[in-house]
Amino acid sequence: MDEQALIASARAGDPHAFNVLVQGYQDIAYNVAYRVLGQPDAAADATQDAFLAAYQALAAYRGGSFKAWLLRIVTNSCYDQLRQKKRRPQTSLEDMVEDADYAVALTDPGESPEEALLRQDLAEALEAGIARLPLDQRVTLVLSDVQGLSYDEIAEATGASLGTVKSRLSRARSRLRDYVVRGREPWTP
Amino acid sequence: MLGFLGQPRNAGHRFCQENLSAFLDGELKARDRERIRQHLEVCEACRWELQTLQETVNLVRSLPQVKAPRSFRIPHSAPAPSVPFWMRPAAYSALRVATGAVAAALVIALAGHAVGVAPSPAAAPATLMAERQAVEVPAADQATQGANAQGEPALTGPALPTEPGVGIAAEAAPAPTEGDGLAAGAPQPTLAGERGLAEPEGTPTGPLGLGGGAPPSTDTLTPEEAIRATNAPPGMGGGALPTGTVAAPKAAETATPPPAPVEPAAVPSAAAEPTSEARFAPTAPREPHAPDGWTAMRQRLGVYPWATWAAASGGLLAVLLAATLWLRTARARWP
């Protein structure tokens, strides 16, 4: 069954059809949530909320890129998670990045310990830099450079104009570059 | 002096810096791409910028995809897809219409307030004075009319009270019993007649007639007033007339205004300093001073109708605007 047929069935109230879509998109959705939030539990919560919200909102889906439509709900869910975290702060963004689950997720059994260490250091540096980006820029960077969405899809997923997407991405990359070049110094925008 | 010569290069440099990211992604038009290529040939800083940006993008793209730690399948009991009522176009239209209507009401209220059709909070003292005069003058008038009425055959006098104590003067005066004074609400002729019969003829009840209001007891009067009251001719005491229906034109003349005799009537009511409750309490229908619809509405709404109306519509407008803002945000977030 193709995607549009599954969407049509799900819109008619068939949760089985929607769960087939979930199977196809859950890694992408979780990955975006994880890169935006930097914390596995919060990312899992945001992803679950997003799929439930997407199923509810399917009646409002009017065609176009289903992936972009879904990722918009995921990013909104991430915003909600961050708002909740602000209200009930438990762990800092730094702690989120250096979470133990994160290191495990990055481990590649095929590489040498030295390579793994270097790669992990680099990945941690990148993650720390991404975590320091303003939220809008972070979301845009993740959608573009982690998920490979086009500018049009990012505009659709974030509800921003093409020009805004372009400038947000440009600033995000420049800031991240500056952070990586300067090492882990506290970065002041 | 030659600064304008550097301007095109600076503009090109700025354009290049701002668009290098999109240049990397191939998201520029052919003309803009060519402009950046030409600038890169002459600008080392922009070449460094391009190279480091490219490396940063490559690093981010090299980050591994994280696998979902579990399945995110939705439960079969999940509610079926539906569009919430607040997302339907009708909800937004209704909110807009309601906001417009309330805004119009607010404008009307403010305009009425500004034009001065109705009293404003700023004019409150003057308003209250006017209200007080409106209260006192009828009391005095009533006293006069009450005294006059005793001289009239039909004893029509002031309007009959429909409920005890509704008359402003009646409440203001320290009347121990209702209906003793004529101005206190002018007892019905039969009642007056009965009372008049019950009382011994010639009893010095002058103050009853003079008072127009309740009969001031001597202990509430000053000695001078007490003397004046007891010296008043019995004929003036309308309530003391044996029949209550018999009118002596002469007595009526005697009782008619000279300001001095009327004074005792005004004294108790003024001395008693009518409470705000008494001041604004709905009064019994008095023919000469029956409040028109506007006054009655003013009294009901509490003196400041426009201000009240403006405050109410302003509050409602704020609520509606907040709801509109929330709805716009929700619609923007709605996928």
Hey, roughly how much beta strand do the residues of chain B contain?
under 5%
Quaternary assembly? heterodimer
Largest sheet of chain A: none
Helical residue percent of chain B? 55-70%
Whole-Å distance between the termini of chain A?
Answer: 49 Å
What overall form of chain B do the CA principal axes indicate?
elongated
Uncertain residue ranges of chain B: 1-7, 119-129, 135-221, 229-279
Greatest interface by residues involved: A-B, 61 and 40 residues
Secondary structure elements and pairings:
The complex is a heterodimer of chains A (189) and B (335).
Chain A: H1 3-11, H2 15-37, H3 40-57, H4 66-87, H5 93-97, H6 100-106, H7 113-131, H8 135-146, H9 151-158, H10 162-181
Helix pairs in contact in A: 1-2, 2-3, 2-4, 3-4, 4-9, 7-10, 8-10, 9-10
Chain B: H1 3-24, H2 30-42, H3 44-62, H4 89-115, H5 124-151, H6 168-172, H7 189-198, H8 206-211, H9 223-231, H10 249-255, H11 259-271, H12 276-280, H13 293-301, H14 305-333
Can you tag this structure with a few keywords?
heterodimer, A: 189 residues, mainly alpha, 10 helices, 76% helix, 0% strand, B: 335 residues, disordered N terminus
